[in-house]
Design brief:
Blueprint (H helix, E strand, L loop, with lengths): L1 H21 L14 E6 L6 E5 L3 E9 L8 E5 L5 E3 L5 E4 L3 E9 L6 E9 L2 E5 L2 E4 H8 L1
Parallel strand pairs: 2-8
Antiparallel strand pairs: 1-3, 3-6, 4-7, 5-6, 7-8, 9-10
Length: 144
């Protein structure tokens, strides 16, 4: 019985050691990295997509698994900064023009931990000629 208890104590010590080194940025090659996951979240984000109007901002955030991880330090990027920009540290998106782009986020410490969403920017104006701009909803109504 005492031997079985010793095995339990050793197993718990090994798990505790793995957990502590998994949070340490000096141990990136640890197998625990493969269990980590980050997921983009924000108001209106569903099924890895979100739509916001031109000129609007959207604060994106992360859900991190496991929840005790504190060394992710996310880096945010926009694949098309003419359509939307994003603050690379805070995740604040600003929609610039109508279109679709991908917003990416990855861990500064381990770029293999990443996620992305599709950002659709709607609204804005469509220039018909040099002096006349038409709201997109009006242009779509004219098309019908």
């Amino acid at each position: 019985m005492k031997t079985f208890r010793n095995y339990i104590v050793l197993a718990l010590a090994a798990i505790a050691s793995l957990t502590m080194t998994a949070c340490d940025p000096d141990h990136y090659d640890n197998a625990a990295w493969h269990m980590w996951k980050i997921t983009v979240e924000g108001e209106g984000v569903a099924y890895k997509e979100v739509t916001i109007p031109v000129g609007a901002t959207l604060q994106l955030g992360l859900q991190i698994v496991p929840s005790f991880v504190n060394v992710v330090d996310p880096v945010w990027t926009s694949e098309d900064e003419t359509e939307a920009t994003i603050d690379k540290k805070t995740g604040l998106v600003t929609a610039l023009k109508t279109g679709v782009t991908t917003i990416n986020v990855y861990s500064e410490y381990n770029p293999e931990i990443y996620d992305h969403i599709t950002l659709r920017v709607s609204g804005g104006s469509i220039t018909i000629d040099e002096d006349d701009a038409v709201d997109q909803s009006e242009a779509e109504a004219r098309r019908r």
